[in-house]
Amino acid sequence: MTTVYRRYLIPALIVLLIVLFWQWNGPPTLENLKTYSFSSVAELSDIPPAIQHNVPSADSALALVVASQSTVDVSWILPDQLDMDIDVARYVTDLPNATFHIPANKGHEAMVYLTYIISNYYKLPEISVFTHHDRYTWHNNGLLNNDLTKMLKRLNPDKVKRDGYFSLRCHLMPGCWLASGEGPDNLQLNRSEINPHKPEEVIFKDVWPQLHPSDPLPATLSHPCCAQFALSREKILEIPLERYVAWREWLLQTDLDDHVSGRVWEYTWHYIFTGQADYCPSPHICYCDGYGVCFESEEDSADWFRRSEEKSVLERELEMWRKEQEERIRAGKEVNWRMGEEYEERIECMRWELDKRRDVALERGLDPGRRERALGLKS
User: Fold this and answer.
1) 313-372, pLDDT tens digit by residue?
2) From CA 184, how far away is CA 146, in angstroms rounded?
3) Is residue 81 very low, low, confident or very high in pLDDT (cuts 50, 70, 90)?
4) Which of 108, 109, 144, 322 could be stapled to 67 by a disulfide with Cβ–Cβ 3.0 to 4.6 Å?
5) pLDDT for res 160
6) Phi-psi region of 292 (alpha: psi -120 to 50; beta: other; left: phi over 0)
7) 68 in Cβ contact with 43 (< 8 Å)
8) Please, are residues 233 and 124 in contact by the beta-carbon 8 Å criterion?
9) Which residues lie closer than 8 Å to 109 by C-beta, 6 or more apart?
10) What is the rounded distance in angstroms from the CA atom of residue 136 to the CA atom of residue 89?
11) 247 pLDDT higher than 90
12) DSSP string for 240-287
């Protein structure tokens, strides 16, 4: 028998044994994780290259994992656009034959993230960054123009390595606090009535013991929106590979709606990597230590966000005023244009102030000493 045949025969026999095992015992579940071991069947490094993902190198410092569809524009991840030393794994959820593909298009980005971890468990880069496909979107960081490329370029690898898990979004709304700032925006897991805005809330009583059989159900779950984060190699490896395999199997087998199962995982990532049900880091520390955007203090940072929200309120009021004037024009009534000008002047003044303070914060973050003082690490 030639070397080539021997090379592929053994993995083929292993795959056959797995199929027979599943037929007799069912697929692996979280309940039988203690007896099921993926490594006892085959390590991913033993699978023939023909059926294995092309994966980022274990020597890489940084890898970007992008959950996308074939119809979206992801030109921003091209080397000449991203312009940084980073490996990129673009998973295409609706193309089974894509270089980076998933076993089934379920659970939104959760299936992509779990598949990446499983496929690369033995050859992870130092840091893996998990994101959606949008370069610009509301749930990126406003202080960095909602631009994911700016977030990647300013990301502090030491922060990720130190914490192990880092939420890319620094803003606490939604997920931690209501947009009004008047109360928490967490999931209430003991609630029995369905919240149409959070359909996953009432589901957790049933799925929690399936995902975390050894952990009691917490009263609440909270985390900044929206399932984009960075992980160190060490943090990923703290969890055995078989748990990731079983979690993905749960996602493959669940009857939950795709949107709901994805939302379940959106509120699960922080728990499995931090052990905290409510994880809402300080926006000031997140921005300063994570991206080098450093206001003088927590109070200075909070004031900037307060002023920014005031500007947003004025912008919404101006938009409503404009619609009212359009109705007055259609009705042949007189319009007080001066009021609109006053709105615009106030908004422009606030925009100038906010931009100037943001630019100073960006500059402050480039100086290690000033950065440490902003974080309260030295006087």
Assistant:
1) 999 999 999 999 999 999 888 888 889 999 999 999 999 999 999 999 999 999 999 999
2) 24
3) confident
4) 109
5) 98
6) left
7) no
8) yes
9) 67, 130, 132, 227, 262, 265
10) 19
11) yes
12) -HHHHHHHHHHHHH--S-HHHHHHHHHTTHHHHHH--SB----HHHHH
For strand 127-132 and strand 62-68, is the pairing parallel, antiparallel, or unpaired?
Answer: parallel
What span, in angstroms and rounded, lies between the C-alpha atoms of 122 and 43?
A: 8
Tokens found for residue 268: 């699960």
Q: Are residues 85 and 62 in contact, defined by beta-carbon separation less than 8 angstroms?
A: yes
Which amino acid, residue 197? H
CA distance 366 to 370: 8
Give residue 148's identity as a one-letter amino acid code. L
- Using the CB atoms, write b or e for 25-35: b if 16+ within 10 Å: eebbebeebee
Mean pLDDT computed over 36-42: 27
φ, ψ for residue 220, nearest 5 deg? -140, 160
Per the confidence metrics, is the pTM higher than 0.90? no
pLDDT at 13: 53
195 pLDDT band, cuts 50/70/90, is confident
CA angle 18, 22, 27 (to 5 degrees): 110
CA 106 to chain centre: 17
Whole-number Å distance between alpha carbons of 344 and 87: 44
- Amino acid type, 35: T
Place of tokens 């055995």: 240
The mean pLDDT value of the chain amounts to 85
Q: How far is Cα 61 from Cα 58, in angstroms, rounded to an integer? A: 8
Residue 171 and residue 226: Cα distance in Å, rounded?
10
Q: Is 293 exposed, middle or buried (0-12, 13-18, 19+ CB in 10 A)?
A: buried
Q: Would you state the structure tokens that stand for residue 97, as one six-digit string?
A: 């034959």
Which residue is associated with the tokens 């929106």?
A: 225
Query: Tens digits of per-residue pLDDT, 107-159?
Result: 999 999 999 999 999 999 999 999 999 999 999 999 999 999 999 999 999 99
- What span, in angstroms and rounded, lies between the C-alpha atoms of 1 and 8? 11
What residues contact residue 209 under an 8 Å CB cut-off, 6+ apart?
217
